[in-house]
Amino acid sequence: MTNEKIQRISLSNLEQNFLEVEPGLTTREAVEESNRCLYCYDAPCIKACPTGIDIPTFIKKIASGNLLGSAKTIMSSNPVGASCARVCPTEELCEGACVLNHSTKPIMIGNLQRYATDWAIKNEQTLFQPGESNGKTVAVIGGGPAGLAAARELARLGYDVTIFEAAEKAGGLNTYGIVSFRLPQKISYWEVEQVEKLNVKIRTSTVVGKDISVEQITENFDNIILAVGMAHVPNLGVEGENLDGVYDAIEFVKATKSGKLSNDLVGKRVVVIGAGNTAIDGATCSVRLGAENVKILYRRTEEEMTAYDFEYEFAKQDGVEFRWLTAPKRIIGDERGRVTGIECIKMKLGEPEKDGRRWPVAIEGSEHVIPVDAIVKAIGQTRHLELIESFGLNHAGGVVKVDQGTLQTSNPKIFACGDVVFGKGLGDAMVVTAAQQGKDVAYAIHKQYSVVGTAN
Ligand SMILES: Cc1cc2nc3c(=O)[nH]c(=O)nc-3n(C[C@H](O)[C@H](O)[C@H](O)COP(=O)(O)OP(=O)(O)OC[C@H]3O[C@@H](n4cnc5c(N)ncnc54)[C@H](O)[C@@H]3O)c2cc1C
Ligand code: SF4
Prior knowledge:
Elements: H1 3-8, H2 11-17, H3 27-36, H4 44-48, H5 55-63, H6 67-77, H7 81-87, H8 94-97, H9 109-122, E1 137-141, H10 145-156, E2 160-164, H11 173-176, H12 185-196, E3 201-203, H13 214-220, E4 223-226, E5 246-248, H14 249-257, E6 269-273, H15 277-288, E7 293-297, H16 309-317, E8 321-323, E9 326-333, E10 339-352, E11 358-362, E12 368-371, E13 374-377, H17 385-390, E14 395-396, E15 399-400, E16 414-416, H18 431-449
Parallel strand pairs: 1-2, 1-4, 2-3, 4-16, 5-13, 6-7, 6-13, 7-8
Antiparallel strand pairs: 9-10, 10-11, 10-12, 14-15
Helix pairs in contact: 3-5, 5-6, 5-9, 6-9, 7-9, 10-12, 10-18, 14-15, 15-16
The structure holds flavin-adenine dinucleotide and iron/sulfur cluster.
């Protein structure tokens, strides 16, 4: 790429690249789409939504012009319903279950949900009120979708809730992890604000286990909810990982969401390792940062990739290339310590293992070098092992063990929800499932005290 072209891709150009891609429905489109809904009795779309949003009701309210009522219907079931309107794999959930799949095309439930919640955001609506105080205190560790959902429901039931959040702002991966061209931060901030308006205290920039001790939390609250999600991307375990130009995908996306855009990747060749949603986000971010060529390397095949279909399509539309059955062997650098290439090896899939997955096996002699300027690692996430062990909780490799009914951990005072209990074959790590678990934890705590009262 010429210097002239590089200069033309200024930082303000890059900022444009990170604006939301989907424009959202116009009023006319939203009303027309709402009128297509059959308002099914026993609607399958409701059952397919992990938070059980009353979809036909919120759609009907859009059709009749009651947007406040519509937003309330959505948000009362899903405390992060505005984010979910943008990031849920709707074709696998509500839209996948819509009866109209059999005749024409499903109702655009996600887009309608976005239409109603966008209205509430634009019109600065406060949707819920705190419940009458019952004198019980709850500490929520982690202010992501799971923690916010738990805090919101508890506050509506009259609990005195404090969220401890390590990052500068609450919202978890909605604020820092899911790329801004799919989920702008202002959406997540509004959901956090809705929780704060219920008198929930949010202590940001506070790492539990460092800025405040586990003992202080345990002593000062009646109940604790662990909602810390997962941690950083693990090491690849290959030579050269510490070279300049090797990034952790989560930190990489976080930098773009925190406004720390740089034109270091303009005209560069980027390789992303992994094929989950994080890998796709790392790849599409690289494209928007001006990279000339972006490749995703995956040691299995397209069939085994874990990214949602819509994410995969999105990456292909962005021109991201995929190299299947390819694993990294060594990262190569120059004398200045900067990445210049990645040595890879071709793989083949072996026989299915006990869990049904076919394990990739290296093909000796198939080593080859791909010249690159940057590498983004996206091979999953590690766990908050130290914190989990400081609380003395039972876990399996960092996945906190909970009673499946009550979400209570091995310490009856402590509950857990969201990504911290997902993984290793347990549950689907999604925003919407984290939110539902947060709600479930709130109701489990409430049930334990048998406090009389209803949510406002
Ligand atoms: C890149 C990426 C893209 C994704 N895309 C999608 C998508 O399109 N759709 C979808 O449904 N899901 C997506 N997911 C998954 C989804 O984001 C998670 O399942 C969801 O955010 C889990 O919510 P959570 O509240 O459990 O955890 P998190 O969102 O991770 O929140 C945990 C919070 O705890 C805080 N915390 C951690 N340790 C401490 C501590 N010691 N003290 C205090 N606070 C602490 C963290 O700072 C964080 O704010 C994606 C995930 C990633 C990584
Ligand atoms: S299944 Fe489809 S048509 Fe029926 S209520 Fe749900 S969105 Fe409307």
